[in-house]
């Protein structure tokens, strides 16, 4: 049988999946456009990188013997630290090879083909792709025109048949966040048949902002099943090592996901680095301060060009550039500037730019100014 014949017999939900739009690497852009420096502002990475404490540990890592051994399948050291700091039971915690791994595990654990999942657009692509991969019917609720969550529309989209509600707060790509009142109002409308998947990939950037909710406390007030996701990829500067974690409302839910995941999904180097990073609060605080200052500067520079970025509590800005964003982003590559044009229907004139180093942010503004045709 030909590959095509074989493929035609596979599940339609898998054959129909879109590719994840991960963007270009710095190396690819450097070689293709022959630029000396690349401003990689498409993936919300931390321009400070990993903390010096993490780097020091990695250089001392006892190599040969340790590399031959399987990692700790339960991440016990990191688990104990997180449980202690957050005041949750260690058995409520789960680890993923990045929090995207946890999104995949949650989809496989909790969703059956044909079940409804409610989420937001513009969206973090995997919030849609993973549920679709298991055959879910994904219902998407657009953000309001002022780029805030449309809580009323989300509530209207929910039903007792909804198996999962997926929200990232702050939103990726928009950057806006629900406050405590809105979050409670939304959760009050959720059926106990629905698992609330609350993705806080940008938690550290937002946690000290006045209006940002204590989501762990608010989720705990409910009697719903929930899963709260956080990651070491953003404020901790460890995207390359792939560590994310989840807190489940009940150890039973975490236990089910534990059976679905691969047993050694976090490698030993990543576990150790994450444990050191978790304790290095100074590095996170400095990274968050950088992001806040850089974000304000970029917002002001964009506003001076007549652009109105969405409210953001995260390390990126999202805005309508008034023209085909993919074409503009492609022209900016020639300046060594990588941004993320939004490709979801209705948002094709929008782009997301990460807050990077001061040099990279200036490069972005300069390139954006010269390459745009609108305005
Ligand atoms: C970056 C991001 C993640 C994934 O991060 P990992 O690197 O897989 O931990 C998950 N959710 C959102 C909303 C993100 O922006």
Estimate the global geometry from the Cα principal axes: globular
CATH fold label of the largest domain: Aspartate Aminotransferase, domain 2
When the domains are counted, the total is 2
Listed once per kind, the bound small molecules are: pyridoxal-5'-phosphate
- Percent strand equals 5-15%
CATH C-level class of the largest domain:
Alpha Beta
Q: What percent of residues adopt helix (DSSP H or I)?
A: 40-55%
Summed over residues and divided by their number, the pLDDT gives a mean of 95
Q: What is the rounded distance between the termini?
A: 55 Å
Please mark out the parts with pLDDT under 50 across 5 or more consecutive residues, or reply none: none
Order of helices and strands: HHHEHHHEHEHEHEHEHHEEHHHEHEEEH
Instruction: Tell me how many strands there are.
Output: 12
Radius of gyration: 21 Å
CATH homologous superfamily grouping of the largest domain = Type I PLP-dependent aspartate aminotransferase-like (Major domain)
Major pleated sheet: 7 strands, mixed
Instruction: Please name the CATH architecture of the largest domain.
Output: 3-Layer(aba) Sandwich
Structural class: alpha/beta
Strand order, largest beta sheet? 2-8-7-6-5-3-4
**Alpha plus pi helix count:** 17
Features:
binds pyridoxal-5'-phosphate, seven-stranded mixed β-sheet, 2 domains, PyrdxlP-dep_Trfase, 12 strands, three-stranded antiparallel β-sheet, EC 2.6.1.9, pyridoxal phosphate, 17 helices, 42% helix, 375 residues, globular, Aspartate Aminotransferase, domain 1, HistidinolP_aminotransfase, alpha/beta
